[in-house]
């Protein structure tokens, strides 16, 4: 008998849709034909398994949901370890710790070395803010170097003297609320009269609504009729601290085109032990300032801000938790601003190409005039 | 509103996937199991896994007609979690032993080993089914779920998946089912 026809009979048989006469006939068929009977048993068994599978999936998601909401409302407390575990952890991870400590030691040695070598100058000039100064910069072309543009030291100190209506500098920013709220670095928009954000050749006017030089964070709001709100951002903001050695990546505008770069997490504090920032190793150039820093799952862990001028790939980023604090401050001070930080992450488990494709729409170049 | 429920009420609520009852059981017991796992070489994630696995075992065993809750829910969950964690420690080649001495009465009132074995067999089936479903791909997967789990009518399914009529959808559904069965039974061991 045709398997398709037989399947449909079995479905009706299981669902009790058969008339008594049909049922009798079917039972007779089963009794006579062993093959049919076997098929029926197998089919019933299979469907039961199929249903059980679904129930289990539903149960697992219920349990996870309950777990998350209990953690959130304080119903249960997730402890990281019982007291004596420190010792066990030490045994378990001492090799990793030794390697990390060595790396940290070497990095610290070089960093402090460079700091000492030039310690008669004010410390500010050893780190370079990664916003890109436009127009009045003298661009050195270095053919052996893959970097196309490099800034000469003298330009960095002259931001404020630039006349208005001329483009001062550019940086990167990214959406934290599809309604049109962006995060960038405070130094990117320093001295700016007019702000424009650009994504895929479309320019939108924006205004700065929050500025905190200590954490180097600014919140911008797009105020442009052309802006179409982006209802769902693909990434979320990571709440726990990133670990040393974690792979990270950023997207930003060191050129007029978006550029991807990857690196790793180097230290949990920033320049001069600044606890508001972290140290990372990544290829970053002027213009990357204000760019989002993602872990491999596409969670935001920081905002790229400055680099050590003396050392290669020593870059500092403002911690992601500063975004949350900034938004909270802003909400407290202004009644009519309702920023909703992205809650869920669609990037987990995707390969890097799909991740960057989704992120690209949410990263903007900031031009200041 | 009084928030006290009898054990039977709680269990019944949990079995009907009620979030409120599930949440109460979860809240009452998670801390205990977490302490057990943390004190015995486990991490917070291990604790969550073990506890949820114990909850699944409770859920699935309580569905069986012969099931009778002879102890408190918390005793049951503790006994199961303890066995699960011990087993995990043994298989993970970790020489550490549970520092807690077994409490005889608990071990007797809950046939933890049988129930864990039952679940292991089931988990194996589940992973086979999951693998088969993954290989099956779309739109077959959604089609089968729409019919067999969401119990949708064939003509609604035809609409949803863009088949010209319900007979076409039906044919497609059976083709999908045959393929899934083939994939599933190809790896299945009785």
TrEMBL record, chain A:
InterPro entries on file: Peptidase_S1_PA (IPR009003), Peptidase_S1_PA_chymotrypsin (IPR043504), Peptidase_S1C (IPR001940)
Protein's name according to its UniProt entry: Serine protease
Organism of provenance: Polluticaenibacter yanchengensis
Coiled-coil intervals, chain numbering: 127-154
Keyword annotations of the record: Coiled coil, Hydrolase, Protease
Keyword Disulfide bond: no
GO biological process terms, semicolon-separated: proteolysis
Molecular functions (GO terms): peptidase activity
TrEMBL record, chain B:
Domain RNA polymerase sigma-70 region positions: 26-90
Pfam families for the chain: Sigma70_r2
Gene3D superfamilies reported for this sequence: 1.10.1740.10
Family annotation (InterPro entries): RNA_pol_sigma-70-like, RNA_pol_sigma-70_dom, RNA_pol_sigma70_r2, RNA_pol_sigma_r2, RNA_pol_sigma_r3/r4-like
Domain of life, source organism: Bacteria
Keywords: DNA-binding, Sigma factor, Transcription, Transcription regulation
SUPFAM superfamilies for the chain: Sigma2 domain of RNA polymerase sigma factors, Sigma3 and sigma4 domains of RNA polymerase sigma factors
Similarity comment text for this entry: Belongs to the sigma-70 factor family. ECF subfamily.
Record's protein name: Sigma-70 family RNA polymerase sigma factor
Organism the protein comes from: Polluticaenibacter yanchengensis
């Amino acid at each position: 008998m045709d398997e398709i026809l037989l399947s449909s009979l079995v479905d009706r048989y299981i669902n009790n849709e058969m008339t008594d006469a049909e049922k009798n006939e079917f039972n007779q068929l089963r009794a006579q034909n062993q093959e049919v009977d076997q098929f029926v048993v197998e089919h019933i068994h299979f469907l039961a398994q199929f249903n059980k599978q679904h129930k289990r999936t539903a149960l697992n998601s219920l349990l996870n949901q309950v777990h998350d909401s209990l953690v959130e409302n304080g119903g249960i407390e997730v402890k990281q370890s019982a007291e004596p575990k420190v010792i066990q952890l030490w045994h378990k991870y001492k090799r990793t710790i030794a390697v990390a400590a060595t790396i940290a030691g070497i990095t610290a040695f070089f960093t402090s070395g460079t700091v000492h070598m030039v310690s008669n100058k004010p410390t500010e000039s050893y780190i370079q803010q990664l916003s890109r100064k436009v127009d009045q910069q003298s661009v050195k072309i270095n053919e052996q170097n893959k970097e196309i543009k490099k800034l000469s030291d003298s330009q960095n100190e002259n931001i404020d003297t630039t006349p208005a209506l001329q483009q001062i500098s550019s940086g990167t920013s990214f959406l934290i609320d599809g309604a049109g709220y962006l995060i960038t670095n405070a130094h990117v928009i320093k001295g700016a009269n007019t702000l424009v954000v650009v994504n895929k050749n479309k320019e939108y006017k924006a205004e700065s609504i929050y500025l905190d030089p200590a954490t180097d964070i600014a919140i911008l709001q797009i105020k442009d009729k052309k802006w179409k709100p982006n209802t769902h951002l693909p990434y979320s903001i990571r709440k726990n601290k990133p670990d040393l050695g974690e792979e990270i990546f950023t997207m930003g505008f060191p050129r007029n085109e978006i550029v991807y770069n990857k690196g790793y997490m180097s230290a949990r504090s920033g320049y001069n032990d600044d606890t508001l920032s972290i140290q990372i190793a990544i290829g970053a150039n002027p213009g990357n300032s204000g760019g989002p820093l993602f872990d491999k799952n596409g969670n935001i862990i920081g905002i790229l801000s400055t680099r050590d001028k003396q050392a290669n790939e020593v870059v500092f980023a403002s911690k992601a938790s500063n975004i949350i604090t900034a938004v909270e401050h802003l909400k407290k001070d202004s009644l009519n601003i309702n920023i909703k930080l992205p809650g869920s992450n669609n990037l987990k488990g995707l390969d890097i190409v799909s991740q960057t494709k989704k992120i690209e729409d949410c990263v903007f170049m900031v031009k200041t005039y | 509103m009084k928030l006290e429920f009898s054990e039977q009420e709680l269990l019944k609520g949990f079995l009907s996937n009620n979030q409120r009852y599930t949440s109460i059981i979860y809240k009452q017991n998670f801390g205990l199991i977490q302490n057990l796992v943390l004190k015995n070489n486990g991490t917070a994630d291990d604790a969550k896994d073990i506890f949820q696995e114990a909850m699944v075992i409770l859920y699935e065993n309580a569905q069986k007609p012969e099931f009778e809750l002879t102890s408190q829910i918390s005793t049951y969950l503790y006994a199961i979690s303890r066995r699960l964690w011990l087993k995990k420690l043994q298989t993970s080649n970790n020489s550490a032993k549970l520092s807690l001495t077994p409490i005889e009465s608990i071990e007797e009132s809950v046939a933890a080993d049988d129930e864990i074995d039952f679940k292991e067999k089931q988990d194996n089936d589940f992973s086979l089914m999951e693998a088969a479903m993954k290989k099956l791909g779309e739109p077959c997967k959604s089609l089968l779920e729409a019919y067999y789990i969401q119990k949708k009518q064939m003509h609604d399914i035809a609409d949803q998946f863009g088949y010209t009529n319900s007979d076409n959808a039906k044919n497609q559904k059976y083709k999908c089912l045959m393929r899934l069965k083939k994939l599933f039974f190809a790896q299945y061991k009785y």
